[in-house]
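User: Fold this; tokens only.

Assistant: Input:
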Amino acid sequence: MKLISKAMAFGGEQRLYRHFSASTKTDMEVVVFLPMEALEGKLCPALLYLSGLTCSWREVTSEDLPQLHAAANGLIIIACDTSPKGESIADSASYDLGQLASIYLDAAHFPWSKNFQMESYLTKRASQFPCRFPAC
């Protein structure tokens, strides 16, 4: 995982990572909020936050502000991309399908099946995220 940015937030630190996903065959982004306890090297529980329809990690971390509650309770928050993105990725003008949608199943039909393997991404890859972050 490549660290893209980090910033202090609510007494902890919010980090943005980018990595290649074998499941989606695209680069994916993950935001991680680390409370002070995690930054001090203590073990902390982690919550994988799945955004709702037409949301992404951006809306969750800038509008819902779960970091405030996570900081107060020593909780790591991991918020992933909600779908694969890019010019060569299948898309739809409909808000409930395509690169803006948050669908957490593996697509079975072309053109979606090529990259929209979100269940595999979350169950096979995201479960490894917490152990790969320094200070977790």
